[in-house]
Every structure is written in structure tokens, then in C-alpha cells.
Design goal:
about 20% strand, six-stranded mixed barrel, alpha+beta
Length: about 425
């Protein structure tokens, strides 16, 4: 093994120009592949979260509120709708505005998004500090995660809630979203042809926003408020609502549920879309993303593979005389064939490390959105597949030549310059 590695390094040193060209080609392949794979993976992360909430049969409702049976008041939470539509599973992200005082700022209204547990677990955003909601949290006080904003808010800060001129409660910040991070909490776009798609249900929150958005957990909020007897934050079932029907639902019951939801959503811009429409439009959007990325990757990969094969063949042919001498000196043919393999392995490792530095550097400099690049399993598998393919190509040709020609013939043609 020591001989193989030293010989591989020797060959790289002898053919430095070829090595540099191969390194550049590999870096291009790795970087383009990393960007393409990460972009698709990034989109599937959003898709998978909505798929968990809109799985099976059901309906997604975007509404300003669901009216109760009396037609005068609005429903308060998902549990109330589940009691009416028996057998359904309801998850929601609801909007409401609350008058907060943050640090030394004046009283102002801030937008809240209140998540059911299913929405909290379906998608966990990236945070710049603190943590996201979890089942293990002890509900001693109302907790919140806030978006990045121009206001200097950090984990551990206290938001004071004011009603009618007096303090009615406090909310402790446990986390802050990364600048530009997207979370479930928008479904404002409606396509009359395709219906809602998963990517329309997310909103990005930027630090350029003047005021933060406050994200709350409904279970945490209700637990604390029921214990204290104080309704610190008032909320209704308004926003995005996922109503999952029972698996054994009959056609008559399905129509009954649809009719009820249509009759009780408030007028105006409210929408009711079947889960099937969300799934179809989501898959269509993912296919579009994939088709946009695939040609870029394919072109770079084909050009790199063809160029590297030609360059590597030239390098191997130039080294055939040395390989023949190694064989005369008693080195096994199997070990000799592993020399270009070791050479290519070292090149691939170097190219992979250079690619990571380039991608991370561009991301840090703001040339690539930080959220696009995620070194997850798909990206690692892609890089390993490229490495394996290049190594196999490098090791196949010497073995083919050894089988085709004897050492005497190899020495004769290399001395005559036929291969060089």
C-alpha cells in the first residue's frame, strides 16, 4: 500500500499540468453537482413537511375564520372543529395580532402565528440562536420564537403583552430565526388551474423587516393560560387549516364535510382546496425544479467525464514505461494497476475539499443563499458516486492494456513513442 501511494504521488508530481487540469474539471463537477443536489433537496424539505400535514384525503382551508353554529362567533381552535367533524384530524397555523412592548420600544401590534403541534413537528426551521418548540418543554411560561428583524431581539428576551393600558402577561423568547429563513405561515397565492402548491405555504422572514413576527405553540399557550386563568393572547381559528378525513370515510360523509366547510368559511378571499390538488401541484413544481437543474449538472458532468478520460488516458500511456519496469522488478500487475487508482483517489479527495471551500466561501460572501447549501446524505452520495466512477475509469484502462499486451510489447511501443 505504501508503494502504491508513493507511486501515485510520484505520478502526480511528474504530470503536474495534467493533474491541475483534472483537479479543475473535478471541482467544476463537484460544485455544480452540490448546487443542483442541494437545491432539489432544499425544495423536497419543504414538500415533505406539507405532505405530512396534507397526507391522504382531506381539505386545506385558507380562511379569515370559521363561524360557529350560531353564525355569529368564530371557532377558537382545531379541537373545536374536530368535535364537529368527528373522525377528522385538524392541524392549523393561525394568525392574530397582539399588542406587545419589546424591551424599551413603544407599544405596538405584532403579527402572531400560532402553530398546532403537528405543524411544529412537520417543519423545524434553522435558527440563529436558541431553539425551536419541543415536546420536552416545561410549560411554566408562554414561549415564542421570533423572526429576524431590525429590532435587536435575542433568545431570553421578554415580550410584555398590554391590553387596555395594563400588563396582562409576558412571553419569553426561546429562539430567533436565521435571516432569510422560511417557515410555514403563508398561503396567499392561489392558482385557479393548479390550486395551492406546498411552496406557496411558506414565507421568508428577513432581518430587513421593521417588526418581527412572533411564532407561538398552541399547546404551550393553552396550558399556561388555563393554569393562570388569564387569556394573555386571544386567538381564533383563522389562517391555514388542514382537515384530514378518516381513512374509511364514505362518499356521503365526505360530501357532508365539504359542504360544512364551504358553508362556514368566511366570505371574501377564503379558499378550500383538496389535498389531492396540493399533492399534484407540489409534484409538478418539484419536477420543474428538477428539470431546471438537471441540464446544468448533466452538461458539466459529461464534459468533465469525457475530458478527464482523454487526459487520464494520456497520463497513463505516458506512465506505461514505468509500470513495465515495476513489473520487471517483481511488482505484481494488480499493484501496478492500483497506482492510477491511488492517483485518482488523491485527486478526487483534493477536489472535494477545494469544492467545499469554494461553496462555503461563496455562501459566506453572500453569492449563494446560505439555506440552499446543506451537506446532507444526497450530496455526499453524489460526491461519492462521482469519485467512484472516476476511480473506476482510472483503474480500468491499465488493466485492459496489461491483458492486451505483454511487458515486452509495452516497452517496445513506449520506446518508439507510439503511445506518447
Amino acid at each position: 500500500m505504501n508503494f502504491i501511494l508513493k507511486s501515485g504521488l510520484r505520478e502526480l508530481n511528474r504530470h503536474q499540468m495534467i493533474g491541475r487540469m483534472n483537479l479543475i474539471l473535478l471541482v467544476v463537477t463537484f460544485v455544480s453537482g452540490m448546487l443542483c443536489v442541494s437545491t432539489v433537496w432544499y425544495q423536497t424539505r419543504y414538500y415533505r413537511a406539507i405532505h405530512k400535514l396534507a397526507n391522504g384525503e382531506g381539505a386545506f382551508i385558507l380562511t379569515e375564520g370559521l363561524t360557529c353554529e350560531d353564525g355569529l362567533t368564530n371557532m377558537k381552535d382545531s379541537a373545536e372543529l374536530e368535535r364537529i367533524l368527528q373522525g377528522t384530524k385538524v392541524s392549523s397555523f393561525c394568525y392574530c395580532a397582539t399588542p406587545y412592548v419589546i424591551k424599551d420600544n413603544a407599544l405596538d401590534y405584532y403579527q402572531n402565528i400560532i402553530y398546532d403541534d403537528a405543524c411544529i413537528k412537520a417543519f423545524i426551521p434553522e435558527l440563529s440562536e436558541g431553539k425551536w418548540f419541543s415536546d420536552g418543554d416545561v410549560d411554566q411560561e408562554i414561549e415564542a420564537v421570533v423572526s429576524a428583524s431590525a429590532m435587536d431581539i435575542h433568545a431570553g428576551d421578554i415580550l410584555t403583552v398590554i391590553h387596555s393600558g395594563k400588563e396582562v402577561g409576558q412571553v419569553r423568547v426561546i429562539g430567533v430565526l436565521k435571516d432569510g429563513e422560511a417557515v410555514i405561515g403563508r398561503a396567499t397565492h392561489y392558482d385557479a388551474v393548479n390550486g395551492f402548491s406546498y411552496h406557496n405555504m411558506y414565507a421568508e422572514y428577513s432581518a430587513r423587516e421593521e417588526k418581527p413576527t412572533v411564532f407561538l405553540s398552541r399547546s404551550n399557550l393553552e396550558t399556561v393560560q388555563s393554569r393562570t386563568g388569564e387569556e394573555v393572547i386571544e386567538s381564533e381559528l383563522s389562517g391555514g387549516i388542514f382537515v384530514q378525513y378518516p381513512e374509511s370515510i364514505t362518499d356521503a360523509k365526505r360530501e357532508e364535510y365539504k359542504t360544512y366547510l364551504s358553508d362556514h368559511i368566511m366570505a371574501g378571499g377564503d379558499k378550500c382546496v383538496e389535498f389531492g390538488q396540493i399533492e399534484e401541484s407540489g409534484k409538478a413544481y418539484l419536477e420543474d425544479v428538477l428539470m431546471q437543474q438537471f441540464p446544468v449538472w448533466l452538461c458539466s458532468f459529461v464534459v468533465t467525464a469525457v475530458s478527464m478520460v482523454c487526459i487520464e488516458l494520456t497520463s497513463i500511456k505516458a506512465s506505461l514505461r514505468d509500470y513495465a519496469i515495476y513489473s520487471i522488478c517483481g511488482c505484481a500487475k494488480k499493484s501496478i494497476c492500483q497506482i492510477p487508482l491511488a492517483e485518482m483517489l488523491m485527486l478526487n479527495i483534493a477536489a472535494f475539499l477545494v469544492s467545499i471551500v469554494i461553496v462555503e466561501g461563496c455562501s459566506w460572501a453572500g453569492l449563494i443563499q446560505h439555506k440552499i447549501i446543506e451537506f446532507r446524505v444526497p450530496m455526499i452520495l453524489y460526491c461519492l458516486a462521482v469519485m467512484l466512477l472516476m476511480i473506476l475509469l482510472a483503474s480500468w484502462y491499465p488493466a485492459y492494456l496489461w491483458k492486451k499486451q505483454s511487458i515486452k510489447e509495452i516497452l517496445r511501443v513506449t520506446e518508439s513513442g507510439e503511445y506518447i
